[in-house]
Amino acid sequence: MASDSDEDLLSLRRAAREMLDMARLKRLHLHGDWERASRLRLQGLSLLYDASRRFSIPRVRFDIEDFTDDTCLTFYRLTHAQLHRLQDCFGLPDVIRTGSHSRTCCSGLEGLCITLHRLSYPNRWLELSRIYGRWPSALRSISERCNALLEGNLDLASSRLHEFAQAIYDQGGELDRVWGFVDGIVRGICRPAGAHAQRSVYNGHKRKHALKFQTVVTPDGMIFHLFGPVEGCRHDIVLLRKPELGNRIRGDERFRGLFIYGDQAYGRTDVFVSPFKGALTPAQAVINSSMPEVRTTVEWSYGQVVNYWGGVDFKRKKCVLVEFQLRRCTR
């Protein structure tokens, strides 16, 4: 349970967020009320400064050996041995250095643990700082740097491409050169303030405010690539027009002659294949009916992410515009 000082600190931060609401300040500027807008901004920054002075960081050093396996399962969803193995499998360095002005550094294992702890449950950085002995801003920088090291690492899948293709074929897929499946996913968010912002992220198909992502999932259930987010109102074709994944794979000889399977919107290129259209031959009909059955790994991976990592499915924490605006004001 949070202490009174923690509650006071969170109240100060909430008040500062309201005062630094960029949409509100912009409306005041448009109506010519410059003095009031300036006063609100200064009051918000003053509250943030007061909140930072009231908060103290405990002098603790992270050591994974201080936690039991049960605690690790609660915090990170993994045991000691699994955490060390995951660091090796991901190829994380022994030391992670952030690109922020503070040049924060930590061990690769600590960076992985901070990232997993943040994802496992809807935690605040303020709460995690008492466990890791670091300022919330440092924890955020470490997590962002760790995510950047993991993002789009082609080496994680390139050594197993033919193994993936064989697994899909053995499972009943009639295409023997497909190594992964691509699809879009819609994740709900808080309803943003302002009619224009609400329309831009509202997804009519799911009937909720959301962001869209594009993922590539391998047969072992791992999400190999994630692109996004884009506004929830956008059609999936917007994700397809982004050439990032296709260009990276085309430039890597290890992926030559192998394909990613998606729905008909992805078409048939040197990177993607999709179901046949039009008048089908018997062989094409068999292929079209066999691939959706093995493609269920995509849906399984999404469900596993939500089950194990509740932090990514907590809509109240996904205040997209508010978080971005507050970060701009406090830089």
TrEMBL record:
It comes from the Eukaryota. Its cofactor is a divalent metal cation. The keyword Metal-binding applies. GO terms for molecular function: metal ion binding. Keywords: Metal-binding. InterPro entries: HARBI1_dom. Residues 182-306 form the DDE Tnp4 domain. The keyword Nucleotide-binding does not apply. This is DDE Tnp4 domain-containing protein. It comes from Phytophthora nicotianae. The lineage of its organism: Eukaryota, Sar, Stramenopiles, Oomycota, Peronosporomycetes.
